[in-house]
């Protein structure tokens, strides 16, 4: 019995229940039916019909007829129950066998397979759960492939630069100079930043990055960042960095260190693509959230590119961003950090008129 499959177990369990019912019905009927028949004969005699002399023959004939009828009923009932049990067991086991086949296909790399719906509610719920799991696995696999492809693409350029300069230095075609070594150091630093950013992003996507959320005041953090970036602006740049912070902004419930990381990334991007005009950090309250917006008057983003700005390794201007040292995943990190703190991030931009990146944080 321990080695029987689910279909055999269901079939035998249905058959066993049916046999117990039939045997119970037969035994009770065999004992009680003749007695009830005798009582019926006695009631006939009360009405004046004499059946005393034929009572034994009548009871015996009734028992024989009942036994024959019960026997044929038993045969028909067992046959019908066996057939029905087999069909029911097959109907229940069929979607499970389909899941087994699809699981084997998953193991072979065919992640697009799905389990069809089932008219049995419990099995339909199991199929829906299985399909959701399948979609999740397919998404994870697709992200893994995209990550490998993007990472290969991003590392190819600095590695090619390093190899070319090192080969030139080794065969004497390039003379060693501080500028050459500075270029080599810059490329290695870029690869190091890329690896560090990827490690942090993978931790966030896997849920391993801790978020120490607690109530804190945004104003000191934003003021310190404005002073820090203002001190780094070259004097010859005609660029203003401003903060608009209303007095009625409440405390937010978030991780101050992660909020600073988001703002540093957004401010760095805004200053990188804004050559004149201003970069403004504007804070406002909407319902139960505080919104922090970084508004610049820079080059802006084309409307066709807006849906992709938070994707990994996406760039509107690949050559400029790569030359400036960006890794292409800073905005992806910002999005995940905002989501982990219960907020959302969005962008509004027009080409040639600047961009507005803003994100929300829950209030206390």
Description of the molecule:
- The longest helix is centred in the first third of the chain and has 53 residues.
- The strands form 2 sheets. The chain has a 5-stranded mixed β-sheet with strand order 2-4-5-7-6. Strands 1-3 form a two-stranded antiparallel ribbon.
- Helix 1 packs antiparallel against helix 2 and helix 5 packs parallel to helix 6.
- It starts with 5 loop residues before the first helix and ends with a strand.
- With 364 residues, the protein is α+β, with helices and mostly antiparallel strands.
- About 2% of the residues have low confidence.
- It is 62% helix and 12% strand.
- It has 8 helices and 7 strands, in the order ααααβαββαββααββ.
- Strand 6 and strand 7 form a beta hairpin.
- It is elongated.
Structural classification = alpha+beta
Order of helices and strands: HHHHEHEEHEEHHEE
Q: What is the average per-residue confidence, as pLDDT, rounded to a whole number? A: 79
Gyration radius, in Å = 40 Å
Let me know the number of strands: 7
Low-confidence stretches: 318-325
Anisotropy-based shape? elongated
How do you describe this structure in short?
The chain is of the alpha+beta class and 364 residues long. It is built from eight helices and seven strands; from the N terminus they run ααααβαββαββααββ.
Features:
364 residues; five-stranded mixed beta sheet; 8 helices
Write the layout of secondary structure elements.
Layout: H1 6-46, H2 55-107, H3 121-171, H4 178-206, E1 214-216, H5 218-232, E2 239-244, E3 252-254, H6 256-272, E4 277-286, E5 289-296, H7 318-324, H8 330-340, E6 345-350, E7 354-362
Parallel strand pairs: 2-4
Antiparallel strand pairs: 1-3, 4-5, 5-7, 6-7
Helix pairs in contact: 1-2, 2-3, 3-4, 4-8, 5-6, 6-8
């Amino acid at each position: 019995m321990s080695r029987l499959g689910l279909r055999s177990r269901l079939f035998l369990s249905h058959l066993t229940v049916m046999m117990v019912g039939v045997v119970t019905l037969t035994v009770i009927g065999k004992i009680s039916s003749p007695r009830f028949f005798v009582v019926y004969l006695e009631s006939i005699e009360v009405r004046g019909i004499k059946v005393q002399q034929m009572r034994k023959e009548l009871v015996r004939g009734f028992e024989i007829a009942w036994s024959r009828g019960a026997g044929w009923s038993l045969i028909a009932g067992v046959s019908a129950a066996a057939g029905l049990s087999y069909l029911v067991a097959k109907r229940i086991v069929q979607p499970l066998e389909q899941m087994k086949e699809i699981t084997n296909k998953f193991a072979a790399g065919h992640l697009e397979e799905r389990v069809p719906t089932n008219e049995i509610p419990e099995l339909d719920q199991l199929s829906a759960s299985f399909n959701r799991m399948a979609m999740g696995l397919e998404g994870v696999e697709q992200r893994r492939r995209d990550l490998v492809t993007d990472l290969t693409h991003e590392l190819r350029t600095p590695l090619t630069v390093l190899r070319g300069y090192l080969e030139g230095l080794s065969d004497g075609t390039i003379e060693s100079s501080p500028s050459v070594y500075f270029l080599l150091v810059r490329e290695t630093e870029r690869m190091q930043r890329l690896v560090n950013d990827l490690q942090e992003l993978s931790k966030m996507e896997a849920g391993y990055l801790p978020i120490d959320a607690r109530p804190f005041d945004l104003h000191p953090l934003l003021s310190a960042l404005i002073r820090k970036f203002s001190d780094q602006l070259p004097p010859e740049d005609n660029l203003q960095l401003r903060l608009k912070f209303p007095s009625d902004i409440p405390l937010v419930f978030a991780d101050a260190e992660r909020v600073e990381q988001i703002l540093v990334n957004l401010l760095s991007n805004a200053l990188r693509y804004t050559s004149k005009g201003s970069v403004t950090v504007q804070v406002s309250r909407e319902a139960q959230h505080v919104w922090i917006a970084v508004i610049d008057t820079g080059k802006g983003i084309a409307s066709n590119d807006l849906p992709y700005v938070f994707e990994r390794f996406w760039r509107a201007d690949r050559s400029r961003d790569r030359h400036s040292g960006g890794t292409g995943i800073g905005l992806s990190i910002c999005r995940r950090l905002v989501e982990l703190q219960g907020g959302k991030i969005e962008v509004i931009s027009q080409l040639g008129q600047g961009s507005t990146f803003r994100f929300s944080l829950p209030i206390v």
